[in-house]
Specification:
Number of helices: 34
Strand content: under 5%
Distance between the termini: 61 Å
Shape: flat
Radius of gyration: 30 Å
Structural class: mainly alpha
Helix content: over 70%
Length: 598
């Protein structure tokens, strides 16, 4: 399990106390609004939340710029998982008092908790720009960049926050996590020492200390912290028992490891099952070890939204290979080893993707002795698929690195050159892409003429060579007539060549084979409009909106068709609908203005 991600999910910026805001100068409010607000406070104290919110609504209705009431309601919504309402109220607050940086920070906190890091960053930076000496925006930015896996950026702002206030708990604690991720455990412990001075016996500080000690192989120190939790009767969570058990496991005390790892009832962490398996293996109970490994793998697969295996499963497969080999199941063991090497090709050196060492049950390569050819081909596919995943997320640099790793094992593999072409297209380097595709055609291993032809069509189209693009996509279609995306690309190429009739014919073929693909109807709507067949364009847009009532592109295309047929009122309605999805689109604003003038 990636403990970094797991812990970060529990790291949120602390909500700032209301008292910090109440000292600010208040906007004008009527005596009646103040009375409603005071009654709301009393209702909150009596745990009558519905009544309190109703009173706050009355206070705000009476005095729309009543900051205390707006702030109290915003914080209530934020605390009760109503982010859209919280953001609406914080937006009103930043409009009323834009100089109050804490309103910006609070809105950013809500954005961050909802996973909208771009909006959170924008608000935090706005707050920081308005007051570069304020600690709150610095803490917020440091915490955000930490959660977003940007340790360098996090460190910059957290260092500034600590420089402004040495005993800044939030900054010190967040920076300790950053240092932990950077494997600077001694420095992390120094920050945690300050955290202890600020908040004595803080459980989060103690937990992070325990994990730092475990990484430093100071198992006794880790054990001492968790024993302290037990003595003080602190409510312990699943991860506490995991790390407590791991400390005993690393010490070689497998009986105590088994005891503490077994305490959580139906644990949600695959790591607990993995370490239980490792412990049972050391205690020579292969049946239970195998069962726990099976459970860990199942949980890891379920945890991924796509339901596919991820690199987190690699060490579990590797350990299961060793367990199965010892149990006399050599064939299954070999399958598991190859799966581990595919998911994380670096595991042959007992390391993960980032170069961290795995704690494994042994050296499966020595035990199982797979052939070099089998191992190499498995690792090449692993690197290639990882590169493909990076391409999907737009990370061209990491994708290129993975292809180079694959090339280092097998420089004659066609897919390596094909992936390099795909990366070149991402970067807009179309002549380079064509060169790589020519190389992919010449290389003997793993060659897919179909994939090469399809990618060549894209590269030539982007380069502006429509003739070559059309020839390439027709070659792909000849190889695989059932792939509708090829027909779609052909239609797009024909449209680029100012041949909308042929574009319609091509997209019609795609729709016949895949009528449920709404994107194809939107493509055809564009081609119909190029032929001035606006009624057909409207029909295609209607088909899409019947299935997806919030499809922005369908409203846009239908609006254009209405405009072309002088149905300006209908066009205005559609363009206004588009504006709801993208308020900053200047073209839509111009179209709305034009329709209103008709």
């Amino acid at each position: 399990m990636d403990k970094k991600i797991q812990h970060k999910k529990g790291f949120y910026p602390l909500m700032l106390g209301l008292c910090m805001f109440f000292a600010n100068q208040l906007s004008a409010q009527t005596p009646q609004a103040i009375a409603y607000y005071q009654q709301a406070q009393t209702a909150f104290e009596q745990n009558k939340e519905a009544e309190a919110i109703e009173l706050l609504n009355k206070a705000i209705g009476d005095s729309p710029q009543y900051e205390r009431a707006l702030l109290t309601r915003a914080n209530y919504y934020a605390d009760n998982r109503q982010p859209s309402r919280a953001i609406e109220d914080f937006t009103l607050l930043v409009r009323i008092a834009p100089k109050n940086i804490l309103y910006w920070v609070e809105r950013g906190n809500v954005w961050q908790q909802e996973g909208n890091y771009d909006e959170a960053e924008s608000d935090f930076l706005e707050a920081h720009s308005r007051d570069t000496t304020s600690i709150e925006p610095l803490n917020a930015l440091g915490g955000l960049y930490f959660v977003a896996d940007l340790p360098k950026d996090a460190t910059i702002f957290l260092n500034k926050a600590v420089a402004l206030e040495s005993k800044n708990y939030d900054a010190r604690y967040a920076r300790a996590w950053v240092l932990f991720e950077l494997k600077k455990f001694d420095l992390a412990l120094l920050d945690l020492k300050v955290c202890e001075q600020v908040k004595k016996d803080d459980i989060n500080t103690q937990r992070l200390k325990a994990i730092c000690y475990l990484k430093q192989k100071k198992q006794e120190e880790t054990i001492k912290i968790f024993e302290g939790f037990s003595v003080k009767k602190i409510k312990m969570v699943e991860e506490d028992f995991l790390y407590w058990g791991m400390a005993y496991y690393e010490k070689g005390d497998y009986k105590n490891a088994l005891f503490y790892l077994s305490i959580p009832d139906n644990p949600a962490s695959p790591d607990i099952y993995h370490y239980l398996a490792k412990t049972y293996f050391q205690l020579n109970d292969l049946k239970k070890a195998s069962q726990k490994l099976d459970t860990a793998l199942l949980m890891l697969k379920i945890a991924d939204v796509s339901g596919v295996e991820t690199e987190l499963s690699a060490p579990v497969y590797y350990d299961r290979a060793i367990v199965r080999q010892k149990a006399g199941k050599r064939s299954e063991a070999n399958t598991d080893l190859l799966m581990a090497c595919y998911l994380t090709p670096e595991i042959v050196a007992q390391k993960d993707y980032e170069g961290n060492s795995f704690s494994l049950l042994g050296d499966a390569l020595i035990i199982l002795k797979p052939t070099k050819k089998t191992l190499d081909s498995t690792r090449v596919k692993g690197y290639q698929d990882r590169a493909e995943a990076f391409i999907i997320t737009g990370n061209s640099n990491s994708a290129w690195t993975e292809v180079e790793k694959s090339n280092a094992i097998d420089s004659l593999h066609s897919r390596n050159a094909w992936l390099q072409a795909k990366i070149a297209i991402m970067l807009g380097k179309y002549p380079d892409a064509i060169t790589y595709l020519q190389k992919a055609t010449r290389l003997p291993k793993g060659k897919s003429e179909e994939d090469i032809a399809y990618l060549r069509a894209i590269a030539y189209q982007e380069k502006g060579d429509i003739k070559e693009a059309k020839e390439a996509i027709q070659q792909a279609i000849k190889i695989n007539q059932n792939e509708t995306s090829y027909k779609s690309l052909l239609a797009n190429i024909e449209y680029s060549a100012a041949n909308p009739k042929a574009a319609v014919d091509a997209i019609n073929d795609a729709i016949k084979k895949e009528p449920q693909n709404l994107g194809y109807y939107l493509e055809r709507a564009i081609y119909w409009q190029a032929l001035a067949n606006y009624e057909e364009a409207i029909k295609d847009c209607n088909k899409v909106l019947e299935k997806e009532a919030d499809n922005r592109e369908a409203y846009y295309q239908r609006g254009l068709a209405y405009r072309a047929t002088k149905r300006y009122k209908d066009a205005l309605t559609d363009f206004q609908k588009v504006e709801q999805y993208d308020n900053d689109d200047t073209e839509i604003k111009e179209l709305i203005t034009e329709m209103k003038s008709k």
